[in-house]
Amino acid sequence: MKIWLFTMCSAVFLLTGCNQEKELTEVSLAEVTRSIFYAPQYVAISEGFFEEEGLDVELTTTWGGDTTMTTLLSDGADIALVGAETSMYVFAQGANDPAINFAQLTQTDGTFLVSREPVEDFQWEDLKGTTFLGQRQGGMPQMVGEYVLKQNGIEPHEDLELIQNIDFGNIPSAFASGTGDFVQLFEPQATLFEEEGIGHIVDSFGTQSGEIPYTVYMAKQSFLEKDTETIEKFTRALYRAQQWIQQEDAVTVAESIEPFFDETSLDVIEQVYIRYRDQGSYATSPLLNEDAWYHLQAIMDEAGELPMDIDYDDLVNREVAEKIINE
């Protein structure tokens, strides 16, 4: 009888222990769009890094900065992946519970300059007198685009015909149908256009504009204060993924994130990943650099879109990232 009771108790203990090990904390994550630009995030999911931290990350694509921020502020998501500028807009409106940036994913702009015709020895002054199909007015890609043009001695509204009234999703089709001599495009569209002979990548807005906190993870201040442990676990898994993509070969990375891009071939995923990796778009750690924060504000100010000067410490929590990096 004693042996039977011991066996039963042992079995109950083992089952309970197993169940406890399988219990994961659910974290809802809203991403602004689906992009190979966010490769480390998908690696953290596919390679099980979040799960190993005890997190069950439920990923939703919310398509657009405004929608993503609304989702976060209305408690539709615990964490949002979106441009850092959105947190500035919310803060400037006097939010009682502002969105705080706690980890960086990408550190450059993700767009490329694509020409309709092949251009040998491209120079930015080649754009003068041409028709340039840019990004939507007020968006971060447009702000970076105009900043880069000005840095290269081009006045966007005087030296070329600038088109900015086409919706983001329709820009590629507009260029493919004949609008514009040059266009500002995200990947993988730029690479696909090259493969199809529609356009030719001649330069990168990311390398031209310098380091900025282009895409970051943010959470409401109340969530950060209430659930710091979850934020730390999330950041630890992200940091592991950021290191992983720098160590693994391109084919391995492409295969890891392929399930998130059903309509993109493995070969294109690999090419796009290499392009972003080689130009330093993927942040190698979650720490958001203070100089990059103010550089972003300078770009926004140049475009007339900066609502107010905002101190780095007001909207950036660096303590979590520093703790994870120093572990």
Task: Describe the structure in your own words.
There is one protein chain. The model is unreliable at 1-20 (pLDDT under 50). The chain contains 16 helices and ten strands. It has 327 residues and is α/β, with parallel strands linked by helices. The chain folds into two domains: 26-108 and 212-325, D-Maltodextrin-Binding Protein, domain 2 (3-Layer(aba) Sandwich); 111-209, Periplasmic binding protein-like II (D-Maltodextrin-Binding Protein, domain 2), CATH 3.40.190. The longest helix has 21 residues, at 2-22. The strands form two sheets. Strands 2-1-3-10-4 form a five-stranded mixed beta sheet, sandwiched between helices. Strands 7-6-8-5-9 form a five-stranded mixed beta sheet. This is SsuA/THI5-like domain-containing protein.
Radius of gyration, in Å, reads: 22 Å
- How much of the sequence is in beta strands? 15-25%
Quaternary state of this entry equals single chain
CATH topology of the largest domain: D-Maltodextrin-Binding Protein, domain 2
CATH superfamily of the largest domain, please? Periplasmic binding protein-like II
CATH architecture of the largest domain: 3-Layer(aba) Sandwich
Helix content: 40-55%
* Domain count: 2
Principal-axes geometry comes out as globular
The chain-level structural class is alpha/beta
Instruction: Report the average pLDDT across residues.
Output: 93
Number of helices: 16
What is the CATH C level class of the largest domain, in words? Answer: Alpha Beta
Uncertain parts: 1-20
Number of strands: 10
